[in-house]
Specification:
Length: 190
């Protein structure tokens, strides 16, 4: 699956990986994720793509983005667009597919293997193009959620499919008891 001497690059569709992890009931520990793929090959780059709401006073993703930026990830962000749909509901749009595809195409001549963390079927033509350039492509997502988070077309196109739930013990953040539960346990021990 992986060769120690191959040059690797990770391309993480942030919102897609977050949704897949949540669907499987765990959070990703990005330090462990980076370490795992450094172990599997020569990791040249780890890109993380996400859209940010610029006008919110506090964005829940901002601490993660800052941490990733200081810990070896190449951050690619853009402002999310807010709009109101025809039913009057507030919606946010922040698709990063084009940015990810352009970066992958530019890096392709310098890598042997790209690991794409996304199940979005829109990436199938990108994977096919990378393969034509001689790059092996592994896709990390899940078929174990309901509904599955990976499109069948993308899974079939990839050289290798890695089931995200199989990586849970390697890259999953340890679950902590909620604060209230720990307090209740402490109180009942008297």
């Amino acid at each position: 699956m992986f060769y120690k001497d191959e040059r690797l690059a990770l391309f993480i569709d942030g919102s897609n990986l977050y949704a897949a992890g949540k669907a499987l009931g765990f959070d990703i520990d990005y330090k462990l994720l980076r370490t795992e793929f450094m172990r599997r090959g020569k990791l040249l780059r780890a890109f993380y793509y996400t859209a940010l709401l610029e006008n919110d006073e506090y964005s829940p993703i901002r601490p993660l983005v800052d941490w990733l930026n200081y810990n070896g990830f190449s951050m690619v962000t853009k402002p999310a667009k807010e709009y109101t749909d025809s039913q009057g509901r507030r919606k946010v749009k922040g698709n990063m597919d084009i940015e990810l595809a352009v970066d992958a195409m530019e890096l392709a001549p310098r890598v042997d293997h790209i690991v794409l963390f996304s199940g979005d079927g829109d990436f199938r033509p990108l994977v096919e193009s990378l393969q034509r350039q001689g790059v092996r492509v592994s896709v990390v997502s899940t078929i174990r959620s309901q509904p599955p988070m990976i499109s069948d077309e993308l899974r079939r196109q990839a050289d290798n499919f890695i089931e995200l739930s199989d990586l849970k013990d390697v890259i999953g953040r340890p679950t902590r008891e909620p604060q209230a539960d720990r307090k209740a346990d402490y109180e009942t021990q008297d």
